[in-house]
Amino acid sequence: MSTPPTSPAPASYKTTPNRSVSVRGVTFVYRRLGPDDGVPLILLNHLSAVLDNWDPRVVDGLAARRPVVVFDNRGVGGSGGSTPDTIEAMARDTVLFIRALGYDRADLLGLSMGGFIAQVIAAEEPGLVRKLILAGTGPAGGPGIDKVTSLTVKDIIKGVLTRKDPKEYLFFTGTEGGRRAAHAFLNRLKERTDDRDKAISLSSFRAQLKAIHRWGRQAPADLSRIRQPALVANGESDRMVPSVNSVDLAARLPHGELEPLYPDAGHGGIFQHHDSFVPRALEFLEP
Q1: H-helix segments, 101-175
Q2: Which residue intervals define the domain AB hydrolase-1 in the entry (predicted)?
Q3: Domain span holding position 271
Q4: Which segments of the chain have a pLDDT < 50?
């Protein structure tokens, strides 16, 4: 049984309650905030991420003007079921989730793996998707994407040895500015103290890694099928999904637009530069 949005919707991600909706017998957990009217913006998360991995400055900033929905896909965090090991299956689950909420039109913001999922949805369900924001992501078969697994494992081990969160290495540069941005971001993720989401399970993490590896090894997709307006954003020094993929993605999308790559920033560029990203995203999403 779904828990429909209430009115007025919460104004802060820190206090937004967890809700749930049943999708073909599987419970999907989500949070919704922002105004009640307008095309909803669905946020599609990155590798290993749950609800509490979205930067509250990005979510709150977007929700100041747009209805925003953040969710755990199948098998992730508080959602039930088993995590698929292909991007295409994750995309199908996402479509079912969006429709279970009663939406027949939505905008998508996909970060990293979420950007892979968003591309598939936009191509396969053109009537559902109005606009796309693709951050820290790339096209199928893009250079370096098949190396995400080895890079992630290496930096997880490095994080254990240095007693630091691996995202400090995976999402940010090693410069003084990058380290400051990483610490600020990680502190923001701790602002919510009540009703936090469950961490991803090891089996789900492995399934996601397998899906990303397959995406990186696929033949290049025909991006001409994606006719929706698309804003592409990234840091200039993305180690996980090399920044050249963002440039290539924007160039190959018929209505792609590349946001200038954020300086001294990596995979978490939209978090590090949230003060620039949020107003640009809101401007792009205007009707």
Answers
A1: 113-124, 148-162, 167-170
A2: 40-273
A3: 19-285
A4: 1-7
